[in-house]
Amino acid sequence: MTTTATLAHVSALARFGYALSDETRARILLALREAPSYPSDLADALGVSRQVMSNHLACLRGCGLVVAEPDGRRSAYRLADPHLAPALGAVLELVLTVDPACCGPEGCVCS
Fold first, then answer.
1. Which residues contact 5 (CB under 8 A, 6 or more apart)?
2. 50 assigned to some structural domain
3. Which of 38, 65, 76, 97 is surrounded by the fewest CB atoms within 10 Å?
4. What CA–CA distance (Å, rounded) separates 92 from 30?
5. Distance CA 7, CA 73 (A)
6. Looking at the domain assignment, is residue 24 inside a domain?
7. What's the pLDDT at 1?
8. Is residue 53 one of the residues assigned to a domain?
9. Which backbone phi and psi does 106 adopt, to 5 degrees?
10. Across the chain, how many H-helices and E-strands are there?
11. Which residue range or ranges hold the HTH arsR-type domain (predicted)?
12. Spatial separation of the C-alpha atoms in residues 11 and 63, rounded to whole Å
């Protein structure tokens, strides 16, 4: 079965790629893959400030990858779609051959 890439598909992949392009956002998604969490708990677990966590959660909400669920005066965050946890697992199982001349410790420099 062949799926034709629509603009919606391309946009969804671009948002997913953008979210994963930052280590903190990737760590947040992996943490939320395990269980919903509060921003302050995520900030403490990942060793970032609460302001940094707030900014990254806002980005992930904007990308449609996480949602906030009110819980009294706080909000707990969870992955927005149940398909996202297994998709992250599948990405983690990928074995990529990386060209060190392109994607070294400093990041990708390919053009």
1. none
2. yes
3. 97
4. 10
5. 38
6. yes
7. 46
8. yes
9. -80, -5
10. 5, 4
11. 5-99
12. 10
Residue 1 domain-assigned (yes or no) = no
Tokens 């990737």 belong to 26
Q: Would you state the structure tokens that stand for residue 76, as one six-digit string?
A: 């707990």
CATH of the domain at 85: 1.10.10.10
Q: What is the pLDDT of residues 67-92, one digit of tens each?
A: 999 999 999 999 999 999 999 999 98
First to last CA, the chain: 33
**Total domains in the fold of the chain:** 1
What's the CA gap between 104 and 110, in Å, rounded? 10
If you count them, how many residues does the chain have? 111
* 42: amino acid identity, one letter: L
Q: What is the spatial distance between Cα 7 and Cα 10, in angstroms, rounded to a whole number? A: 5
Which segments of the chain have a pLDDT < 70?
Answer: 1-3, 104-107, 109-111
